[in-house]
Amino acid sequence: MTRPLLALSSLALLAAMVAIPGTARAQPEDAEHRADRLRTIELNRRAQAAVDRRDRSNADVRATNRRAQERYERERAEWRRRVEACRAGDDDACAPY
Question: How many alpha carbons fall within 13 Å on the CB side of residue 61?
């Protein structure tokens, strides 16, 4: 039942496209639309340049944060190892960190 309905709707769409031939063609671009399009391209280029500058200026901060996070994770892993060793009976591992 669905297939005949799909076929009929496809045929109706095809008939509509054939009946209105001018709608499928792109209209020529006038000067105002061209200016708007070029202005938008320029604004996007400037925005991307600003984002790139921001990212470059924040690179050192991100690197510092990444190193601090890695150091923290190493220290926590060492602490967890010492806690496990202390619980397993290693008295030297129980000394204050």
Answer: 5
Task: Specify the amino acid at residue 70.
Answer: E
10-44 confidence digits (pLDDT tens):
666 666 666 665 555 678 889 999 999 999 999 99
Write down the residue that tokens 């671009």 correspond to: 29
DSSP state of 8: H
Helix (H, G, I), strand (E, B) or coil at 28: coil
The whole-model pTM stands at 0.44
Tokens for 41?
């391209």
Q: How far is CA 31 from CA 35, 37, 43, in A?
A: 6, 10, 18
Taken in order 29, 32, 37, 41, is the CA torsion positive or negative?
positive
d(C-alpha 70, C-alpha 83), whole Å:
20
The CA distance from 37 to 34, in Å, is 5
DSSP 29: P
